[in-house]
Design a protein that fits this description.
Blueprint lengths: L2 H18 L11 E9 L2 E8 L17 E10 L18 E7 L5 E11 L2 E9 L4 E9 L22 E9 L4
Antiparallel strand pairs: 1-2, 2-3, 3-6, 4-5, 4-7, 5-6, 7-8
Length: 177
């Protein structure tokens, strides 16, 4: 099981526990799922966020002050995919544009989810300053690898890359205490 899927499963369990148990302050550091994972084109795509901005090296741009979330999207191969990846391999070299919309006001932020690694494993991510508590919609486009050479000969070749496809999920953000 890929690291981000494992963390997302544990997060779902911890969310159930946190509803039944008093807050310990630890939930602010939990990975929170966004919608349901989707499987398309031989890929498993799962979105989540951390309810705070993260530091990275090299720094990934600047952002205005205010509440922030760190978006994380895991994109892994499924068993039997036609691209030559093993099941649950993270897919490298993707370009993943995103749009985050605050539905209460229409506020929107657009950008590119960058390849990153953390204790949660490899993912595509971005830290975004948000207007505050409320309902959001995250939309991404999963574009094929750029700069990853694939074999095309009849003996070792793999299928042509997929055409870009969008995915969209709604979620509620609440600032941690």
């Amino acid at each position: 099981m890929s690291q981000i899927r494992h963390v997302m499963a544990l997060t779902a369990i911890s969310l159930v526990v946190s509803v039944a148990a008093p807050a310990s302050g630890q939930e602010a550091f939990s990975l929170r799922t966004i919608g349901r994972p989707e499987t398309r084109e031989g890929l498993h795509v799962a979105a989540a966020y951390l309810a705070f901005g993260v530091a990275s090296e090299p720094p990934s741009g600047s952002r205005p002050p205010g509440p922030a979330i760190h978006l994380q999207v895991g994109i892994d191969a499924v068993d039997g995919n036609p691209y030559g990846f093993e099941a649950e391999d993270s897919i490298p070299y993707l370009r993943v544009p995103f749009t985050l919309v605050f539905t209460g006001t229409g506020w929107r932020r657009e950008g590119i989810l960058e390849p990153m690694v953390s204790r949660n494993g490899f993912h595509y991510g971005a830290t975004v300053t948000v207007p505050g508590d409320g309902d959001y919609v995250l939309t991404i486009e999963v574009q094929p690898p750029q700069g990853l050479v694939r074999h095309t000969d009849p003996h070792t070749g793999v299928a042509a890359w997929w055409k870009p496809f969008p995915l969209s999920w709604g979620f509620r953000y609440t600032q941690p205490d």
